[in-house]
Amino acid sequence: MEFRALLFDFDGLIVDTESPSYDSWNEVYAEHGHQMDLLAWADCISNRESSFDPLADLERLLGPGTIDAMEVEARRARRKDELTDVTQLLPGIREYLEEARAMGLKLGIASGSSRRWVTRHLERLGVAEAWDCLRCWDDVERSKPHPDSYLALLDCLDVPAAEAIAFEDSPNGVRAAQAAGILCVAVPNDLTRRLDLSHADMRVDGLGGHPLRRLLEDAAAARAQARAGGR
User: Fold this and answer.
1) Which helix (H) or strand (E) holds 226?
2) Higher pLDDT residue, 46 or 134?
3) How far apart are CA 222 and CA 136, in angstroms?
4) Which of 43, 47, 135, 175 has the fewest C-beta atoms under 10 angstroms from its C-beta?
5) Catalytic amino acids?
């Protein structure tokens, strides 16, 4: 059975917007002589149900009432946007889009961010028209790590899970794709490569330099191996 669709996460996979989020918070922590715990922050990546609150964590470190939470959050958000607005497509993304189109594959995005956020950056980078369908957190009842966005995307594309490949950069994103029954390729970025992605079906260090046709062959082999192992 051939693959018919490529499904992409957005943040950290198409554009590295995750480093600006982490770095902007880390700058705030550094102002107060601390560093944010990456593993604590990792729970927030592709997980809108995360209980980790950087402001509360900072107040825990510094003592209650020591920071102006509204001022800090507003300033941090401006800094995050400033860092994000200069990001570019990650290596290999543009080539994958072009080659997928030439091969007749459908293209979709399943994102844990808002549709407004995703489309804003797709338009900024000139690839807004490349996609057949987008499903974001505001399109579904439950966002990642639940499978809802992927299930909705499959329905929109009219492609069964067995004929799709998902690309994710985070542990929570991998869980969401696999919970929808989709073979998932982990493609970590500079931030998430320090996290445990061993549960993914495949892992590549980056899409640049890993041609799509070769990846499709590797994915078919991984799926066959998983089926032989009774997964």
Assistant:
1) helix 212-228
2) 134
3) 28
4) 43
5) 9, 11
